[in-house]
Structures are given as structure tokens and as C-alpha cells.
Design goal:
By secondary structure, the chain is of the alpha/beta class. Helices cover 45% and strands 9% of the residues. It folds into two domains: 173 residues, Aldolase class I (TIM Barrel, Alpha-Beta Barrel), CATH 3.20.20; 51 residues, no CATH class. It is globular and about 65 Å long.
Length: 225
């Protein structure tokens, strides 16, 4: 937390739907878990508290460092009370990512959380989980105006952004599309993807007779069935 504050971060995002990894057959088939190679865990390997628990620095014994990471990453015993401890350690806004139920959204608001992300982790944690877009309206109703509500999982286009904002999201997060752009063309690819999403959102608003984001509301959508 102190490192994040010192580095100039403006919020702390706590992912609550990945405290244990889900069943991912493709990853199992490919034996794909970069963490086991020390890839993607730099925030751990560079942390003084993490390193103090090791006999050797990570660069000298990556296997031991990875083993320690695996021992501290997953923690199914976490409770709402732990969130209260987190709230007391920082003045930065706290965002809970991975909320799908109105009761959990309300609980987060009561415990001092500043914002939530309605998310099913891109559909990668529980097979058959509710779509984040379907979960959004009752959550927005549950928290009212007292909390910022964002959404991710399934955002692939400006039209998807339009739907989420119309159903009450204050903002959306983009995952897979920017990674595709990054893989194809680095920073330029990411910028291109985001420009395309923004352009499509702009045109979708125009074609729906909306001139400002605040014009978006559920009346612009027609539920299937």
C-alpha cells in the first residue's frame, strides 16, 4: 500500500473474484501458468516484505520466490472484516472488482468502499456465471447514487460501452481488446483499439439521438424477449 501511494497511484483496486483460480481447461491443457516461471508477479518479487521472507533474492532463486508467491496469493479465508483493515490503512479510494450480486454491492458501500466493478472476470472463473451486463441494473438500483459503479467483462466495442452506460454504469473497463492490439502492434495497437471503441461509441450515440453521455438511459435499449 505504501509503495502504491509513493508511486503516485490514485486508487487501490482489490480483485475479489480471483482469490482462488478457477477451473481453466485450456490453461491446464497447455500447462500455461506464467506465474510458475516468475512472469507477471513483479509486484511481489520487488516488494521488500515479500523478499524479506526469502533466504535468497528472487534473482538468485526464482523457484523459492515462486513457491512463496503461490503460498500467499490464494486465500479463500478472506472476509469482509479484512476489508475494514484495508480501508484503515490508506486514504486512497478503494475499488472492489468482481461484484455480481446486489447484496455484495450494498455490503461494500456500507464498509466504506468508494467504487465497485461489476465483473465476472471475463467469464474465466465460474463456467455459466451471470453476464456482468445482466448483473448491472439490480446492482445500480441497490447502491443508488452513493457509489461509483463500473463494469467489465464482455466489452468488445463502442456499442457494448453504450449498453453498459445506458444501464447505469459510470464507466467501463476494457480488457481483451487492448491486449489484442498490444500483441499486434504494441502501444500503437492499444491506442488504435481504444480510438476505434471511442469512435464507435460516438457514432452509436449519434445514431441513437444522444449528444452527451448523460443522455444514455435504459429507455434506449430493448430487452430480448
Amino acid at each position: 500500500m505504501r509503495r502504491a501511494e509513493a508511486a503516485g497511484y490514485s486508487a487501490i483496486v482489490l480483485t475479489v473474484d480471483n482469490y482462488v483460480p478457477g477451473w481453466k481447461p485450456r490453461d491446464l491443457q497447455q500447462a500455461y501458468l506464467p506465474f510458475l516461471e516468475g512472469v507477471g508477479i513483479g509486484q511481489y518479487l520487488s516488494d521488500p516484505i515479500f523478499k524479506a521472507a526469502l533466504e535468497k533474492p528472487p534473482e538468485e532463486d526464482i523457484g523459492a520466490a515462486v513457491g512463496h508467491f503461490l503460498g500467499v496469493f490464494a486465500n479463500p479465508a478472506l472476509t469482509w472484516e479484512r476489508l475494514e483493515w484495508l480501508r484503515g490503512t490508506t486514504s486512497l479510494p478503494i475499488v472492489l472488482k468482481g461484484i455480481l450480486h446486489p447484496d455484495d454491492a450494498g455490503e461494500a458501500r456500507e464498509r466504506g468502499v468508494d467504487a465497485i466493478v461489476v465483473s465476472n472476470h471475463g467469464g474465466r472463473q465460474i463456467d455459466g456465471a451471470i453476464a456482468s451486463l445482466d448483473a448491472l441494473p439490480p446492482i445500480v438500483d441497490a447502491v443508488g447514487d452513493g457509489m461509483i459503479v463500473m463494469l467489465d467483462s464482455g466489452i468488445r466495442s463502442g456499442a457494448d460501452v453504450f449498453k453498459a452506460l445506458a444501464l447505469g454504469a459510470d464507466a467501463v473497463l476494457v480488457g481483451r481488446p487492448y491486449l489484442w492490439g498490444l500483441a499486434l502492434d504494441g502501444q500503437n495497437g492499444v491506442e488504435t483499439v481504444l480510438r476505434c471503441i471511442l469512435a464507435e461509441l460516438d457514432l452509436t450515440m449519434a445514431l441513437s439521438s444522444c449528444t452527451e453521455l448523460r443522455d444514455l438511459d435504459p429507455s434506449l435499449l430493448r430487452p430480448i424477449g
